[in-house]
Amino acid sequence: SVNPDLASERQTASFSVEKLTALLDGGAEQTRIRRAVVEAIESDPVFSRENQYFQTQNERYETAVRKAVHLQKKMHEMGWTENGPEYKYIYRALSGDVAFLLHRIFMRSISVLGSDKQIAKWIPLATQHRLIGSYAQTELGHGTYLQGLETTAVFDTATQEFILNTPKISAMKWWPGDMGRSATHTVVFAQLYVHGKCYGIHPFIVQIRSLRDHSLCPGITAGDIGPKMNFEHIDNGYLLLKNVRIPRENMLSKFCEVQPDGTYVRHGSQKINYFTMTTVRISLISDEVLTPLMKACTIAIRYSVVRRQSKLKPGEQEAKILDYQTQQEKLLPQLAAAYAFHFINDYLQELFNRGYREIQRKNFDMLPELHALSSGFKAVITQHCTAGVEICLRACGGHGYSLLSGLPSLYTKILASCIYEGENTILLLQTARFLIKCFMAASAGQPVPPSVTYLAAVKHGKCPAKNKLDFLSPDIYTEAYQHVAVRLTSSTAAKVQDLIKSGVKKHDAWNQCTVQLVQAAKAHCHYIAVKNFAETVEKLEAKAGIQKIMKHLCDLFALHGIFSNTGAFLHDGYISAAQMDMVTASYLDLLAVIRKDAVPLVDAFDFTDKSLNSALGSYDGQVYQRLYEWAQKSPTNQMSPAYERYLKPLLHNALSKL
Amino acid sequence: SVNPDLASERQTASFSVEKLTALLDGGAEQTRIRRAVVEAIESDPVFSRENQYFQTQNERYETAVRKAVHLQKKMHEMGWTENGPEYKYIYRALSGDVAFLLHRIFMRSISVLGSDKQIAKWIPLATQHRLIGSYAQTELGHGTYLQGLETTAVFDTATQEFILNTPKISAMKWWPGDMGRSATHTVVFAQLYVHGKCYGIHPFIVQIRSLRDHSLCPGITAGDIGPKMNFEHIDNGYLLLKNVRIPRENMLSKFCEVQPDGTYVRHGSQKINYFTMTTVRISLISDEVLTPLMKACTIAIRYSVVRRQSKLKPGEQEAKILDYQTQQEKLLPQLAAAYAFHFINDYLQELFNRGYREIQRKNFDMLPELHALSSGFKAVITQHCTAGVEICLRACGGHGYSLLSGLPSLYTKILASCIYEGENTILLLQTARFLIKCFMAASAGQPVPPSVTYLAAVKHGKCPAKNKLDFLSPDIYTEAYQHVAVRLTSSTAAKVQDLIKSGVKKHDAWNQCTVQLVQAAKAHCHYIAVKNFAETVEKLEAKAGIQKIMKHLCDLFALHGIFSNTGAFLHDGYISAAQMDMVTASYLDLLAVIRKDAVPLVDAFDFTDKSLNSALGSYDGQVYQRLYEWAQKSPTNQMSPAYERYLKPLLHNALSKL
């Protein structure tokens, strides 16, 4: 039975939830396929996540390995293939709780960096799981700065081998997933030396564990790096190499090769390789970042309509906490952001598909823009969504703090996305570098890529809004975002130039502007996200019922951004103080409007109870019952030796006194 | 041996670390006592926290109970008493990792709410640990709104007993610490019914476990609520009562009593009781909030001078990451906040001591102001410090994400402080209610408490700063903060009034302004924090060496607040755009200045390596060595059954192919 406080929210939906779900999936057929995958995975007890919050790191790892092995069988049974339409739903259905994800990266790096001969040798073995691969790039001492990696690979002409070494502790490989306990092979990135000369970082296939008994190979020291904030199911590992010899053929040689006599040869262009790094940043957005935020919104919003606390009106029943303006102001902007980023993800995917087609035609012109967009949006979306999940967690009070709410795990996992695949500050500075370059070019009348042409058209006008309703016009707010992005880019570009003119060295000048450069990069991405949301809403004309609520969310996303960052818009008077009061009024009005559809809007994300794995977010809203039943199963409710050992001696002789 | 990159930071300190430590401790003698306690605790292996990051929730609980029992012995051995000068350092030295903290709350509630007879009976038993107490207030369905608690206590005149019941699932007690597995007794808050009439919430002493064998008493169902984001060492519990009978004497009756015939009698004033709730909020700031932020700053800043990554200047050595402006901008404002809040904590403690003296003289005039300040500062400081710890964690990149850095545990623990002892949004609205009331009174020419007299003096001037150095003048920035606090309070008061005048009901009008009321309350606290820091610096005249660096930190704290919230200052033009650029310039300049003393400034917090329990923050800065050695001890490096069970069958027959 559904909690009546939740049921009543669904009766008044202003739109068809099913139609919105289909829109998010990219069509009703996709929804059907997704649900079939979810059904198959969730009905299989091996994939259950019910005990997850009770398990130790060791238990989590073992479960993840078991699932990964079982998944192979399942895929075969179900007729699912890696190229089939079901594939992209499998990971989501498993909530990522599976081992051997690095095995895919191992395969991808061989496919991209290996010669045809290497691909022919290794890919079939990997596909059949006759080995388990990993990817060993990051070291204890180096993550961001790849050129600084310290592992060495010295070519020995006599034996036609590379000799790999970890020359000092900071050179130890650290973090590679699946490497701590599972992998038999890994791709090691090392400084290549031939005849004493260093040729920089290159990739080498290295076997690290015996295929016979899984013992470590000679010269290899490897293990697990220990407990982390999340990812208990992954055996992130360390690796020390001591005079490990591998055949010459194990250096991945699509782009560079060491010939038998030690001659170093470069082949073709590596640009496609940079493109791969760029697409990884985009591909993680959906599964690793948007899904967790959508789950967190679902949990927090459903909970906020079944939790009643205190009274809004004296003498009445206690109010649903979502009826408090402060609760709306916490949760509804996160909901709007989840939609905004879903649509920008569609936009980026499309752009990258186009980029890929161009690159295959040997046209690399789009690369700088794609790199800037993927860096900037990876940073902005991971940051925004991580903050959003945290807000959802806190908005559920004490119950949000229980692991059984599902929110702590969502938070501790999404947090990592701000760090991996490029630390966010570094990425934003890459976007900023592109922006400054394009701004200078545009100012000099040179052509620039499409996403930054707006930088050329610096307008010095004022916002034309006359009343609070004007701020519900996408033209008005999109223009405001554009104005801020241009202002921050141009003023920071000017600051860099002024510093250099005043005699400050170029690198120092850059460093002295980085705080502001980061702001400019964020403003650029925020502008594009708002603009894209507005354009998406416009295209929904045919879907009248959905268009209206999406328009509200778009307005909320835009106005929340202004409300939370008023200074950027007030600074040069583009928006006046009186107009800012209108923004605030419109923004607060919108909260009350969207609140009415809040539950249908999260229902449309279409998460099953099993995938939420939350005592607070279930579809039926029987929150308290579920918390109680679940808590009783906790291992902390088993007998503890603490009483006999410590409490009994302490509580001596108390009876007589009572 | 100390990492030379860390050692060099200490050689250039602009002040005496030892003198600053003494200042923070409140005198060199206090430093001496604190260090003696730390030495005694840390040299005792029972109190070791080294394995903490490897332990399960059950192991954490058992260790905490063991420590609590051992602590009794230790205190006796050392001659430490609960009233002695050492007491306040014990909890800090244990990093809070000990059981039976609720036992103290149990005792305090009896002391405050119990009759002399009840105190005489229970306090000696509790002091001698002949029982273990807890405090059962929060229920599954009610936390914030105490009037809504649903547990019932019905007086039975025939047997002179109260009959306690949990009438429905939401009425179950939920969260009380030490109750899930340890406590034998607890203070239960329940709705009192006599002859069918409800008299509201009252406290009752209830025995829940046998003193003979620790089994649950008749009618009691209790257990552990399961895994949480942190506090694994505490057995937060649930409690169901079914017709549990307790003698009439077990209702704590200092303020209210049920006489044998069922007559309900009130005694004296309960105001002192409200004061107790208020002091709890202040007392948690130091141990639960400031210490974690100070530890996080210590870890992140020490790490940031031994971590080198990428090059600032081409051709040179890789740079310490603290030399990047973006890293300074993450960490140094947190350091400044730690000092700012340390000093505001001193201010609040002093104010509360004065309040306590007044209250003992039956003068309750200070209560509303103390309530507003304790609520507001509890919220603002917990929020700010939680965000600060998260920033420190992220600023350490991947290594910050390892539990071995110490940062994840600091974060997951401090986060709870935003929720317990009053949810922050609720608390800020209480402060706001006080502000609005005082603003109206002040506007009508009535007297108001000292901390809000400034609300009466609404000035409409502009900020007089003429260049960036002017913004290093405490008068200039304190005035700006004051201006914003007055503006937000007065404009929100006006909005509430306008809504009511336009016909909106009072409670609706209030709800529609709560987002802005929260902003006003924050601005008020921020203003007082800045003003207090500036005044503290001024009083350091005699300590010239320390005064200078404290002045820098005060400036940074103030300017960071403006820089992060420019809109509030720009809104009505109090600070102009040109002046805001000066603020930015001064702020960024300050980062480079304070960066030079960053390590000495965290050294002054005087944390031992054992208390930090961090691979990144050790005094010697041997970061990589420590991470590696520690990781090797992780239980995840023991043999796993996963190979035999899952991997071996998968990796069949691979050998022949390689």
Automatic annotation (TrEMBL), chains A, B:
Occurrences of domain Acyl-CoA oxidase C-terminal (ranges): 474-651
Keyword terms: ATP-binding, FAD, Fatty acid metabolism, Flavoprotein, Lipid metabolism, Nucleotide-binding, Oxidoreductase, Peroxisome
Pathway(s) served: Lipid metabolism; peroxisomal fatty acid beta-oxidation
Chief site of localization: other
Ribonucleoprotein as UniProt keyword: no
InterPro entries: ACOX_C_alpha1, Acyl-CoA_ox_N, Acyl-CoA_Oxase/DH_mid-dom_sf, Acyl-CoA_oxidase, Acyl-CoA_oxidase_C, AcylCo_DH-like_C, AcylCoA_DH/ox_N_sf, AcylCoA_DH/oxidase_NM_dom_sf
A GO term for molecular function: acyl-CoA oxidase activity
Gene3D superfamilies, sorted: Acyl-CoA dehydrogenase/oxidase, N-terminal domain, Butyryl-CoA Dehydrogenase, subunit A, domain 2, Butyryl-CoA Dehydrogenase, subunit A, domain 3
Domain called Acyl-CoA oxidase C-alpha1: residue spans: 274-436
Residues at the catalytic site: 421
Binding sites annotated in the UniProt record for FAD: 138, 177
Compartments, record wording: Peroxisome
GO biological process: fatty acid beta-oxidation using acyl-CoA oxidase; lipid homeostasis; very long-chain fatty acid metabolic process
SUPFAM superfamilies to which the protein is assigned, alphabetical: Acyl-CoA dehydrogenase C-terminal domain-like, Acyl-CoA dehydrogenase NM domain-like
Keyword Lipid metabolism among UniProt keywords: yes
Record domain Acyl-coenzyme A oxidase N-terminal: where: 16-131
Cofactor field: FAD
Domain of life: Eukaryota
One GO cellular component, as annotated: peroxisome
Assigned protein family: Belongs to the acyl-CoA oxidase family.
The protein, known as: ACOX2 oxidase
Organism in which the protein naturally occurs: Gymnorhina tibicen
Lineage, top ranks: Eukaryota, Metazoa, Chordata, Craniata, Vertebrata
